[in-house]
């Protein structure tokens, strides 16, 4: 009996020594940092722990210029902004000239080139993307067989009731994000699921499936078959390289993704129940995919994007040659842009071209720039028009 007690005592001592050693071997932890903190006047306080930094600045889309931050005795840099117009904004810190995310914030902007953090400044009256007490849909991460033996990645939203109403089928909206964005951006930044949940609950939008693919096919091939970095998209949006990339996306969409979705989800498989839309590069991919496949989609939404008159005349003459036929085929042709968007001039030229060719479209020009703040507005507006 004593021998058993001695063994138990020895085991406890060993465990205690192990715990003490592990605690001693852990790196020291700094003070707890809360960032960002939204204040009652809609200002926000940002903090960043960097005891050895010489200079830290806050950069964000809610600022005209970076704000200098002040360091306290614990090594925490902080700054409080002026009141911010309620919305979701990307931001980051500039630490001795190096851009850094906010390590105290789990919300981030999915992108190939930068990883900004996100701050959500709520409004007194809930915005279109606000989390409300309504029935919620489901967001699923999916993988499908894609081009050149690669595996494609896509995020899929199914509306409230999809899991319960097993016999019901739904229309589908293929929604493509912008240049260097990923398949997560419409979900994590565009808040597609919350916008649709709210609209459906209010009876303003029809229940629909939303499919959010990754638009950079070249990057996927490079990443999975070569092991290299993701190649950047060309700056010029209508040169031969850009058109070739759009064609690669179109082929993947029609030959791989669309069949996968229609096999694995309860979809209504005809053009009248398929919509496609996109922001920036995704808008260009949308326009090219639709104009090349008028038998596949009846609803098209171009957010902050356009095709040049030259490309239209060279590649899509059939769209303007018989405008009456085009107008009959497209149940919705939406073109939108902000008046401070760097694509504003090109988009207006596209609108004028369509008007001159007698192709009907719904024009939406608002204030603001090439931002996801505007993109949420466009989704909110168009979702109310689709499939009606």
Percent of residues in beta strands:
15-25%
| Principal-axes shape call | globular
User: What's the CATH topology name of the largest domain?
Assistant: Rossmann fold
Total beta-strand segments: 17
Main beta sheet strand tally, sense and closure = 8 strands, mixed
Q: What is the SS-derived class?
A: alpha/beta
User: What's the mean pLDDT score?
Assistant: 91
Please tell me the CATH architecture of the largest domain by its name.
Answer: 3-Layer(aba) Sandwich
CATH class category label of the largest domain: Alpha Beta
H/E element order: HEEEEEEEEEEEEHHEHHEHEHHHEHEH
**Strand order in the sheet with the most strands:** 10-11-13-12-14-15-16-17
Helix residue percentage: 25-40%
Distance N to C terminus: 81 Å
Low-confidence stretches: 20-27
Q: Provide a count of the helices.
A: 11
CATH homologous superfamily label of the largest domain: Alpha/Beta hydrolase fold, catalytic domain
Compute the number of structural domains.
2
Radius of gyration, whole Å: 25 Å
């Amino acid at each position: 009996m004593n021998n058993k007690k001695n063994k138990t005592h020895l085991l406890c001592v060993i465990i205690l020594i192990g715990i003490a050693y592990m605690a001693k071997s852990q790196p020291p932890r700094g003070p707890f940092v809360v960032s960002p903190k939204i204040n009652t006047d809609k200002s926000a306080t940002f903090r960043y722990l960097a005891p050895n930094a010489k200079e830290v600045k806050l950069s964000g889309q809610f600022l005209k210029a970076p704000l200098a931050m002040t360091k306290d005795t614990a090594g925490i840099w902080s700054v409080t902004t002026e009141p911010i117009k309620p919305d979701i904004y990307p931001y980051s810190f500039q630490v001795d000239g190096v851009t850094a995310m906010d390590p105290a914030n789990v919300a981030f902007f999915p992108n190939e080139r930068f990883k900004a953090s996100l701050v959500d400044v709520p409004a007194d009256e809930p915005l279109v993307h606000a989390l409300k007490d309504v029935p919620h849909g489901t967001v699923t991460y999916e993988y499908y067989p894609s081009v050149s033996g690669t595996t494609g990645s896509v995020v899929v939203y199914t509306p409230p009731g999809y899991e319960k109403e097993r016999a019901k089928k739904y229309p589908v909206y293929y929604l493509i994000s912008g240049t260097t964005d990923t398949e997560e951006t419409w979900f994590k930044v565009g808040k597609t699921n919350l916008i649709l949940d709210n609209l459906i609950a209010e009876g303003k939008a029809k229940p629909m499936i939303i499919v959010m693919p990754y638009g950079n096919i070249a990057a996927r091939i490079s990443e999975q078959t070569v092991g290299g970095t993701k190649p950047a998209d060309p700056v010029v949006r209508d040169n031969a390289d850009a058109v070739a990339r759009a064609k690669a996306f179109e082929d993947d969409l029609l030959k791989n993704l669309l069949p996968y979705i229609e096999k694995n989800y309860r979809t209504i498989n005809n053009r009248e129940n398929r919509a496609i839309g996109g922001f920036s590069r995704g808008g260009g991919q949308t326009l090219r995919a639709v104009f090349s496949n008028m038998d596949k989609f009846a609803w098209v939404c171009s957010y902050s994007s356009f095709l040049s008159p030259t490309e239209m005349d060279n590649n899509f003459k059939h769209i303007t040659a018989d405008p009456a036929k085009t107008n009959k085929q497209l149940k919705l042709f939406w073109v939108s842009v902000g008046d401070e968007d760097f694509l504003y001039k090109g988009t207006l030229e596209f609108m004028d071209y369509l008007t001159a060719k007698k192709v009907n479209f719904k024009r939406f020009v608002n204030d603001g720039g090439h931002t996801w703040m505007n993109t949420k507005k466009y989704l909110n507006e168009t979702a109310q028009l689709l499939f009606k």
